[in-house]
Amino acid sequence: MHGWRRARLTERTRQTATGRTLRLDVPEWPGHLPGQHVDIRLTADDGYQAVRSYSLAAPAGAGAGSIELGVQATSGGEVSPYLADDLPLGAEVEARGPLGGWFVWTPRESGPLLLVAGGSGIVPLMAMVRARLASASDEPCTLLYSVRSPAEVWYAEELDAAAHRIRVRLLHTRVAPDGSARPAGRIGGPDLRDLPPSAEGRCYVCGPTGFVEHVGELLLTTGYAPGRIRTERFG
Q1: pLDDT digits (tens, 9 = 90+) for 143-172
Q2: 5-99: which CATH architecture?
Q3: Where are the beta strands (DSSP E) in 31-185?
Q4: Which intervals hold domain FAD-binding FR-type (predicted)?
């Protein structure tokens, strides 16, 4: 376990109405793998401390000494609304990590890659997408991204630009864009029908608990081996 390091906020990017990505400079950051996360600690003037975990959106090597986090502001939350909108640029917090070794993928792993994200669960999967794009791999890679509406898509422009290298499919659960061939609705078996299981492939699923459990059951029903499915959930 790495100790706490000073982390200075250098950039904040709006992704959705309540979602932000934050870039922080962290001296002597040891690097991390796509899919790992970090603990962030805030200390108030009276000494009160709060610690929360956030996924790392960029793979190691994306910026020496810096990290990128995804923060979804939660109504009534103690930490996320402050980080999302109120922490001033140049202010310091503390970071500990990288953390996690199970929900990790690197380009060294062969075989097709299937990524399934729900809402802000795209953040650690985006680190995998970026690592995949930076590699020379020509293995098939598909991202199924479930969002309530087009306005809730994180990394919209970046995903559009990635479409020449990976397959990106947006699944809208409540409001579908005009002209969409798929009506709004929960992810289901038909969304996986043309993604046949592979003995060498891996699946990574991230999102709210109910979403992850539902997708995990769909994948098993479709024929994906349990040992090839890795999940991370929140909420």
Answers
A1: 999 999 999 999 999 999 998 899 999 999
A2: Beta Barrel (2.40)
A3: 37-43, 49-55, 66-72, 92-99, 113-118, 141-147, 167-172
A4: 2-105
